[in-house]
Amino acid sequence: MKSHHTLLLLFLLFSDHLAPLSAQAFTGTYGINYGRIADNIPSPDEVVKLLRAGKIRNVRIYDADHSVLKAFSGTGLRLVVGLPNGYLKDMSNNASNAMSWVKENVQAFLPNTSICGIAVGNEVLGGSNYESWGLLLDAMKNVYSALTKLHLADAVQITTAHSQAVFANSYPPSSCVFKDNVVQFMKPLLEFFHQIGSPFCLNAYPFLAYMSDPENIDINYALFQKTQGIYDQKTDLHYDNMLDAQIDAAYAALEDAGYEKMEVIVTETGWASHGDDNEAAATTENARTYNYNLRKRLAKRKGTPLRPKNVVKAYIFAVFNENNKPGPTSERNYGLFKADGSISYDIGYDGLKSSPAGSLLLKPAQAPCWLSLLRTLTISTLSLLLLLRE
């Protein structure tokens, strides 16, 4: 009987420590998007130094480039990799393609590279490629199935990011619902997310909302500055900044669809520091104000007026200005850092500054989470065995 008691206690001990391994891609409240549509930005190794110096732990990339995955190895940085939209058809049509992709781009780099999430597609629903709308769910299911078969589903979270194009209306926040032509694709996706415990990921840009209607939107409201704000009569809630309102609009749409308990995470938000002649709000001062105030707001670890218990989490867009991005000038000027690694404006970060040895002086990387867990398990198990011997 004593051996049975020992096994039971060990099981309970291990179960208690293993519980936090459920797929959670976000630690804390602040992350950043590492876009690389540029030919003049620092190497992935230099980017790792930059992020670690800034104590930024959560990072999203838009593909699964192996040079980046190798550079992040052993750093403790939590990485969400992207499966680009162009892969959706292959992943949707054939489960073996999804298995091969996961093996080559995720499993092969674990556990040294802390890949904690896969973003399957980006802003698919509501986009102009209607064929991909019908491919997204099956692609996600096949990727999740591959993770499950490889025993990685509890450590790697599946998500997809949505633009505000999926909403029919977002003002006031309580009026927000999903567009009629999106609902038939969104509801099955939300049901799948509900089953596997994934959040609703939103790319939210007060900058773009302000630019669309500058005559009727107070720029201070968009920049987290003092302002009268807005009042939502239906919910009797007041909003003093636009980002909170955009997040609560998403919560309202989720509630209307029957998923009021699903968490919303902001996967992109930022403000351009330079733009074309018709993008007057894209200034260095506005970008600095938005990102500085956003960082302060996230540090408070508080929720929104509609969901005060759901702490707001957001990934900033982006690490660098990206000179090869198409579109208006603003698209190439969202970076907190310039292409040479120097800061675009001061919000409390240092750029890539050379030490006498020619590199940033950094603290040793934190041990990966699996190594910390192993240490805890070993110490706890030894303590229990010693106790049982007495």
UniProtKB/TrEMBL annotation:
<keyword id="KW-0732">Signal</keyword>
<feature type="signal peptide">
    <location>
        <begin position="1"/>
        <end position="23"/>
    </location>
</feature>
<comment type="similarity">
    <text>Belongs to the glycosyl hydrolase 17 family.</text>
</comment>
<dbReference type="InterPro" id="IPR000490">
    <property type="entry name" value="Glyco_hydro_17"/>
</dbReference>
<dbReference type="InterPro" id="IPR017853">
    <property type="entry name" value="GH"/>
</dbReference>
<keyword id="KW-0378">Hydrolase</keyword>
<dbReference type="Pfam" id="PF00332">
    <property type="entry name" value="Glyco_hydro_17"/>
</dbReference>
<keyword id="KW-0326">Glycosidase</keyword>
<dbReference type="GO" id="GO:0042973">
    <property type="term" value="F:glucan endo-1,3-beta-D-glucosidase activity"/>
</dbReference>
<protein>
    <recommendedName>
        <fullName>glucan endo-1,3-beta-D-glucosidase</fullName>
        <ecNumber>3.2.1.39</ecNumber>
    </recommendedName>
</protein>
<dbReference type="InterPro" id="IPR044965">
    <property type="entry name" value="Glyco_hydro_17_plant"/>
</dbReference>
<dbReference type="GO" id="GO:0005975">
    <property type="term" value="P:carbohydrate metabolic process"/>
</dbReference>
